[in-house]
Write a structure and sequence with these properties.
Chitinase A, domain 3, 5-stranded mixed sheet, 7 strands, globular
């Protein structure tokens, strides 16, 4: 746990960091109330940014499908973390700019976090399993 914040350490691949940082900044300057980029910006501020090739498969990154448990209700859910333009709740695609998406990004299997929902409730979740989509280079190697 990160003692300064009471939050678990997170990892962000350097390939994702630039775009996520830009999106969080632009969103925070937008007119939405509350600014949707604030939660993501706070997560990015405390993240360890590492070379993409060094990120373990057990870490939630962009495009990851993550199974997690709501520790308050025991409900298990699965979502794929996507960029805002790909957001489609009915297909299980969750924008990284949502409070839940920002809470999940960078976590590893087994880690838990307390986060604030869109309506302001404090929630607790635990990452159970992460599945990452194959990268284009790994798809070519498999062919």
């Amino acid at each position: 746990m990160n003692k300064a914040h009471g939050l678990p350490p997170i990892v962000i691949p350097e390939d994702d960091y630039g775009r996520l940082s830009f999106m969080a900044t632009v969103s925070r300057m937008g007119r939405r109330q509350p600014p949707s980029g604030t939660a993501l910006a706070e997560e990015l501020d405390r993240a360890s940014v590492v070379p993409t090739t060094e990120v373990p498969d057990s870490v939630v990154t962009m495009g990851s499908t993550v199974e997690f448990r709501d520790d308050d209700t025991g409900r298990i859910s699965s979502v794929t973390i996507v960029y805002p333009e790909e957001d489609a709740h009915d297909r299980g695609l969750l924008s990284v700019l949502t409070p839940l998406g920002a809470a999940l990004i960078g976590l590893s299997e087994g880690q838990s976090i307390c986060w604030r929902s869109a309506v302001g409730d404090r929630r607790n979740l635990t990452v159970l399993h992460v599945s990452r989509a194959p990268t284009p280079s790994s798809q070519i190697a498999a062919d």
